[in-house]
Amino acid sequence: MEHVSRLMGERAKVFNLQLILFIIEGTLMRYSLVMLVLNELEGLKEILPRIKREWLDEVVIIDGGSTDGSIEYIQSLGFKVTPQQVKGLITGIKEGIETATGDAIIGFTPDNNMIPEKIPELINKMEEGYDMVIVSRYLEGAKSYDDTLVSGFGNWMFTKLVNILFKTNYTDVLGYYRVYRKDLLKELHIDEIELSIDTLLCIRCKKFNKRVAEIPGDEPPRIGGKSSRSIIGNGIMELKTIIREFLNK
Q1: Measuring CA to CA, which residue among 111, 128, 148 is closest to residue 36?
Q2: Which residue has the higher pLDDT, 8 or 247?
Q3: Is 32 in a helix, a strand, or coil?
Q4: For residue 136, what is the enclosing H or E element?
Q5: What CA–CA distance (Å, rounded) separates 234 from 229?
Q6: What are phi and psi for residue 119, nearest 5 degrees?
Q7: Which of 102, 138, 141, 147 could form a disulfide with 32, with the two C-beta atoms 3.0–4.6 Å apart?
Q8: How many whole angstroms separate alpha carbon 54 and alpha carbon 58?
């Protein structure tokens, strides 16, 4: 009897340990950082060594056809490079999200506009139960050192417009540096990725009563490479998205 009792006690301990591991694994999300690259060697040399593997479950790097040594440099640091199948910024974002296996996506650029050391803070905030957390360039003294007069005004104007029309309190709806649950796209009925995806996420989260938070974070000046975005074209797309979403409230 004593042997049986001891055996049952040991099995109970094993069961309890398995239960604890199941609960932990079931509640903690897996995080995938998604980065698009196209001839960003200079920025990569500044940024990539500062991204610590222990912060993340996965780093997805989609390369759009670099010829400046970016691919070789990324691989030299032990990161995997996935060639982009269809050219274009939007398709690159889509391929990155589809390639990611994590529960949550962190949008990141290799041009020095995003501070890697904010990643742990971003994840910690997300673990408080939010559906999306944004690194705001304009919250609590944070500043964009990459803004021009035009882009700075545009960021302020579109954020203000979203806040007025949708009764929100965002400080940075256009910021790409953010983390969100991967299945959020399906829940918000976002079937197609578009240029104004960041603003659309902010608006739809409000419509569907999702939990969103912002943390402050500076935007350093861009290093190397060349932005593929048109300020005027991007502005028109943002405005069209905001008007469309307001009319479909």
Answers
A1: 111
A2: 247
A3: strand
A4: strand 132-136
A5: 7
A6: -60, -50
A7: 102
A8: 10
* Nearest to 107, CA basis, from 241, 197, 168, 27: 197
Buried-exposed string 111-126: b where 16+ CB fall within 10 A, e elsewhere: bbbbbbebbeebbebb
Q: Which CATH superfamily is domain 29-247 in?
A: Spore Coat Polysaccharide Biosynthesis Protein SpsA; Chain A (3.90.550.10)
81-83 vs 31-37, strand pairing mode: unpaired
Token reading at 219: 């935007």
Domain limits of the chain? 29-247
- Residue 222 has which token pair? 């861009």
Instruction: Encode pLDDT of 86-141 as tens digits.
Output: 999 889 999 999 999 999 999 999 999 999 999 999 999 999 999 999 999 999 99
Q: What is the pTM of this model?
A: 0.85
Check if the beta carbon of residue 64 is closer than 8 Å to that of residue 37: yes
Residue 238's contacts (CB-CB under 8 Å, 6 or more residues apart) are 154, 158, 174, 195, 196, 199
Over the stretch 185-236, which tens digit does the pLDDT of each residue have?
999 999 888 888 999 999 999 999 999 999 999 999 999 766 666 778 888 9
